[in-house]
Amino acid sequence: MKKLNTSPISGMQELLPKEQAVFNKFKDCVREVYKHRGFLEIETPVIDRAEILFAKAGGETEKQIYKVVKTEEAAEGADQALRFDHTVPLARYIVEHESDLAFPFRVTQIGRNYRGERAQKGRFREFYQADIDVLGRNELAIEYDAEVILTLSEALDALHLPPKLVRVSNRKILVGFLEELNLQEVASEIFSIVDHAEKVPLEKTKEWLAELSIGNERVDSVMNFIDIAGDRADVISRLNSFGFENQKFTEGLQELDKVLSILESQGLEGSVVADMKIVRGLDYYTGTVFETILPDYKEIGSICSGGRYENLAELYTDQKFPGVGGSIGLTRLFYVLNEYGLINEADVERRRYAVVPFGNSEPEVEMAYKVARKLREQGEDVDIVFADKKLGDKIKFAGKTADYLIVIGDDEVRTGTFGVKDLMTGETTTSEI
Amino acid sequence: MKKLNTSPISGMQELLPKEQAVFNKFKDCVREVYKHRGFLEIETPVIDRAEILFAKAGGETEKQIYKVVKTEEAAEGADQALRFDHTVPLARYIVEHESDLAFPFRVTQIGRNYRGERAQKGRFREFYQADIDVLGRNELAIEYDAEVILTLSEALDALHLPPKLVRVSNRKILVGFLEELNLQEVASEIFSIVDHAEKVPLEKTKEWLAELSIGNERVDSVMNFIDIAGDRADVISRLNSFGFENQKFTEGLQELDKVLSILESQGLEGSVVADMKIVRGLDYYTGTVFETILPDYKEIGSICSGGRYENLAELYTDQKFPGVGGSIGLTRLFYVLNEYGLINEADVERRRYAVVPFGNSEPEVEMAYKVARKLREQGEDVDIVFADKKLGDKIKFAGKTADYLIVIGDDEVRTGTFGVKDLMTGETTTSEI
Question: A318 and B48 in contact by Cβ < 8 A?
Answer without folding.
Answer: no
